[in-house]
Write a structure and sequence with these properties.
By secondary structure, this protein is an alpha/beta fold. A six-stranded parallel beta sheet has the order 3-2-1-4-5-6. A three-stranded mixed beta sheet has the order 7-8-9. Helix 1 runs parallel beside helix 7, helix 9 packs across helix 12 and helix 12 runs antiparallel to helix 13. The longest helix is centred in the middle third of the chain and has 29 residues. The chain starts with a strand and ends in a 19-residue tail after the last helix.
């Protein structure tokens, strides 16, 4: 069992840190809103720290799961950042979905004193709560092997993709693929309804063939019912797709469908769906469209 810190107790970080505690690790938590850290300690034990630096001091592993590049820099760099408190030979594991640029920046900032892994996750809030996340990891192979058993407290599929930044790039591929699949499913369901078909009968038929997907299996009923108050929020998806599109400019990759779906999500935001689940793409395909 290890001494670990977890920075960021949002809808993903709160249960992920909980799984670390349940696995027997000694967990110190930090959250920008101190009350959330207090709630976590009341439920799981361990202790709360007042700053990222305090949380990281003396820990073997420091995990983070925050909002974006700037949030990540805020909890790692500077006089009160985690890097100022981390011991030589420790490991920093970042589960934020962020840019490959900041992943490489943090690896450079560590200066070889400790390992840095960019390790974004897929599986959403449900996966975090169940401890069944997919984890895509960039960084050194030895650092990965050292951290892998600890990540296993909540990661069911943990893969080393390549050097620093590779985990974030893999997460971009994940989001690009999801965007197209959700839009296709939304259009298919809207078409079935417009044609007077029973969506349940249609899904029962096509979900056993080439059209099958996780989104179809887990979201079609809610999409037909217009229920979007769960899962991965549209605001978060737009943040992620923005990272994908910026990276594509740098590499010269062409993402025409991703760019289009990003604008469709902007439409959903304008409809008041900023916190709706990403399956809410179907909402903009109503009779008036």
């Amino acid at each position: 069992m290890a001494k670990v810190a977890f920075l960021g107790l949002g809808v993903m970080g709160f249960p992920m840190a909980g799984h670390l505690a349940a696995a027997g690790h000694e967990v110190t938590v930090y959250n920008r809103t101190a009350a959330k850290a207090g709630s976590w300690v009341a439920r799981h034990g361990g202790r709360a720290a007042a700053t990222p630096r305090e949380a990281a001091a003396g820990q073997e592993f420091v995990f983070a799961c925050v909002g974006n590049d700037d949030d990540l820099r805020a909890v790692t760099l500077g006089a009160e950042g985690a890097f100022a408190g981390m011991a030589d030979g420790a490991s920093f594991v970042d589960h934020t979905t962020a840019s490959a640029i900041v992943a490489r920046e943090l690896a450079a900032a560590a200066g070889g004193r400790f390992g840095v892994l960019d390790a974004p996750v897929s599986g959403g809030q449900a996966g975090a709560e169940a401890g069944r996340l997919t984890v895509m990891v960039g960084g050194g192979a030895a650092d990965f092997e050292r951290a892998r058993p600890v990540i296993g407290a909540y990661g069911a599929n943990i893969s080393h993709i390549g050097p620093a930044g590779a985990g974030q790039l893999a997460k971009m591929v994940n989001q690009i693929c999801i965007a197209g699949v959700v839009q296709g499913l939304a259009e298919g369901l809207a078409f079935a309804q417009a044609a007077g078909l029973d969506p349940a009968a249609v899904i029962g038929a096509i979900s056993k063939g080439a059209a099958q997907s996780w989104q179809m299996e887990n979201r079609w009923k809610a999409m037909v019912a217009g229920e979007f108050e769960f899962g991965f929020a549209v605001d978060w998806m737009r943040k992620d797709l923005g990272i994908c599109l910026e990276q594509a400019k740098e590499t010269g990759a062409r993402l025409p469908v991703t760019a289009l779906v990003d604008q469709f999500y902007a439409d959903v935001q304008a409809m008041g769906g900023r916190r709706w689940d990403t399956s809410s793409l179907i909402a903009r395909l109503g009779p008036s469209e």
